[in-house]
Protein: DUF5666 domain-containing protein
Organism: mine drainage metagenome
Amino acid sequence: MTVTLISAEQSEEFIHVNGPMEPLLTTSIPAGTYTTAAVTITGGDALCAGVSGSPATLTANVFATIQGPPPETVNLPQPIVISGALALLTLNLEVSQSVQPFSLCAAGITNQVQGLTPVFTLTSQGSMQSGLSAAPIQGLRGIIESTNGSGFHVAGNQLSTIGEFGPSWQVTTSSSTVYQGVSGASALAAGMAVEMDALISPNGVLQATRVAVYDTSTTNTALALGPVLDPRPTVMNSPVLETETSPVIPEFATYTYAGGAAFDISSQLANVAQLPFHATFNATNLVGGQNVMVIAHLSTVTRSFTPVSTMVLIPQTVDGVVTAMGTQGAFTTYTITLAPYDLFPDVASLPGSGSNALQNPNTIIVYADGSTQTQTSSAIAVGSTYRFNGLVFNDNGTLRMDCDAVYDGVAQ
């Protein structure tokens, strides 16, 4: 039996969900056991951002692109068994297998366009007879398009490099929904940028467990997600991984936060106040490599400076080798050496960059507690490589992460 899951083109940007998940679509699948899967991709690019040349220069170019009919590969480690009212399937893009040789981007060579041959892994997260998914999907971000008495609709993210729309979500709320930054559901309005955690219902509608609003303005809202590059006292560069605005913020934007921009920290992790160091995020300790959500209010978008209304530090995933383990209060600490292609050490080499303030940009100290999700195939051990997802802070020149989840690493 063959089932078509996507009947029309669907756009998506994968790197911003390195580790975490994001709902892509909802469809009906007949009960049964499925042993193979196929996907057709009509186009796609891989962007490589980093520092190259002498003197060091910041670059962000298309590193790989689909050239002709691609031989897409979808691996199923186990047959997919569909039963019950709700089945969650995960489509994982294997980046290091999809772009060869990946080491060219890691080495800072960004002017050689390679072939992009996507490799995916499709797995099942299990089936349920009724009710909601067992655990919420965290850190969904977008702009409210409309509201009604029982919830709201979040507009699909628009991919800045191609100007096409990705997934969008219908969201309901309940008496147990936690609101942050607004008093409740009645305070939500079209045009607000939101961050939320949500459970999935059998019909694909999301039930929000947390809704956070960091900027309550609804006028000409533009939202962009991406890493900070080359931060200066009042401006920064950032390649935009995902944006929701019309017209689209350029894929390599320069932002200014000199006009009283607000800085905030994502409330996705609830233990920031309990960390054994003073975790802050502002214009004076912003460093290249940190992942941010930028909210602006623009009538037009150009390639000149984009004024920031609110900048929010959001979780990110880093790949690194554990070199030491310890404890500090209620937290287990992991000292990790970052992959050589990671943005933190890469952009720290830029002359005059605020990232020069880092004492050791190759190292992050990771803090994990009882709320940290460990999804590794074996116990964490010194000498092994893992991916850590969480909020990365600049603590007086030392990078420290409040860790939300740990995954198996990718060979460096």
